[in-house]
Amino acid sequence: MKTYLHSTIFLAAALCGAQANADDSMSHVTMTQSQMMKDCMEKQKTADVTMSKAAMKRMCRDQLKQQKQTGTPPDPPPVDAPAN
């Protein structure tokens, strides 16, 4: 009977630990290709307002392709500074 009790407690602890590890993995969210493309388009738009949408799209596509080939992560999104 003691073995059954110990096994049950061990199984419950293992399941709780697995759940905690699964929750941690969800906190590391990566940007999707379309999100990266949108961010790049916004950056291009603010940098040069006279550039055509097709040219911005071409530049962003090339930039994302190069990032994928070299393995460099995209620039992190800007963080607003707290207003004091």
Write a brief structural summary:
This protein has 84 residues and is mainly α. It is built from three helices and no strands.
Structure description:
By secondary structure, the protein is mainly α. It is built from three helices and no strands. Helix 2 (33-47) crosses helix 3. It is elongated, with a radius of gyration of 23 Å.
Number of strands: 0
Question: What is the H/E order?
Answer: HHH
Spans of at least 5 consecutive residues whose pLDDT stays below 50 are none
Shape: elongated
Structural class: mainly alpha
Describe the sheet with the most strands. none
- Assembly type of the shown chains? single chain
Distance linking N and C termini: 63 Å
Rg measurement, Å: 23 Å
Average pLDDT over all residues: 74
Number of helices in the DSSP assignment: 3
Fraction in helix: 55-70%
List the helices and strands and how they pair.
Layout: H1 2-26, H2 33-47, H3 53-70
Name some characteristics of this structure.
single chain, 84 residues, mainly alpha, elongated
